[in-house]
């Protein structure tokens, strides 16, 4: 059992501290998913990481703080995968193709293939949501965390749609919330039914409900971008010029 709470030299402190935090985060990820946030103790997390309580408290004040750091890490990993899809998949699609239902189905499948296995994260997020519902001190923080995720995701989805000539027909934040709610519902159903696919595969790919409804929902929430006016079109003259033309005609 390691005690990483002691003093460290300035040169080695940042690297060692970073590794310690990463091990604690990985341990907490497993313990939260297995035992739940409420039942998980600091001792359980520290022991799973191979450290003492001192190492935990030299990096995090509470297990709730650790959860939000872990949540930010997981959020960023998913955004990076989403950006990979935007860069690799969307350039192959023309605005004319973007409206076809088959295009929506293929693109959604390709994007889901890029995302990681979300089963453990779904369990942990559900556990913490329940924890926050019971603890008013954590409720506001958790709501802010979820709202921040939705806003950042909405910005990325809005930009991605615009790149293929589409837009949301309602506020991007509201459309994104509907998409997230559907994905979370389908993921929970997939876990409960055991239709989780192969190891490492996104469980949503094994969900008949998600396969049927996610592409249809996104298609229903989108429309072509307005066509900008043609600058070369002749516009009727106005002002003195219009009066001169009327006198000459």
From TrEMBL:
GO MF annotation, one: DNA-binding transcription factor activity
Keyword Kinase: no
Residue segments, region Disordered: 223-249
Domain HTH tetR-type: 18-78
DNA-binding region: 41-60
Alphabetized UniProt keyword annotations: DNA-binding
Coiled coil regions, renumbered to chain: none
Pfam families assigned to the protein according to its UniProt record, in alphabetical order: TetR_N
Protein name per its UniProtKB record: AcrR family transcriptional regulator
Organism the protein comes from: Glaciibacter psychrotolerans
């Amino acid at each position: 059992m390691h005690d990483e709470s002691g003093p460290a030299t300035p040169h080695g402190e940042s690297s060692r501290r970073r590794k310690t935090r990463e091990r604690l985060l990985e341990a907490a990820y497993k313990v939260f998913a297995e035992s739940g946030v409420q039942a998980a103790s600091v001792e359980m997390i520290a022991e799973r990481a191979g450290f003492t309580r001192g190492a935990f408290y030299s990096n995090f004040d509470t297990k709730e703080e650790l959860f939000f750091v872990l949540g930010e890490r997981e959020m960023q990993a998913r955004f990076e995968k989403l950006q990979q899809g935007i860069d690799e998949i969307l350039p192959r699609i023309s605005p004319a193709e973007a409206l076809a239902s088959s295009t929506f189905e293929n693109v959604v499948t390709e994007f889901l293939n890029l995302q990681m296995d979300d089963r453990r994260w779904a369990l942990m997020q559900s556990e913490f949501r329940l924890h926050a519902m019971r603890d008013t001190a954590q409720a506001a923080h958790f709501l802010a965390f979820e709202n921040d995720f939705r806003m950042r995701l909405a910005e990325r989805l809005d930009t991605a749609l615009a790149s293929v000539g589409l837009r949301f027909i309602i506020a991007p934040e509201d459309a994104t919330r509907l998409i997230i709610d559907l994905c979370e519902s389908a993921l929970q159903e997939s876990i409960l039914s055991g239709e989780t696919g192969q190891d490492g595969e996104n469980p949503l790919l094994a969900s008949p409900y998600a396969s049927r409804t996610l592409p249809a929902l996104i298609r229903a929430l989108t429309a072509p971008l307005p066509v900008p006016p043609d600058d070369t079109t002749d516009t009727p003259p106005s002002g003195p010029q219009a009066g001169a033309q009327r006198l000459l005609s």
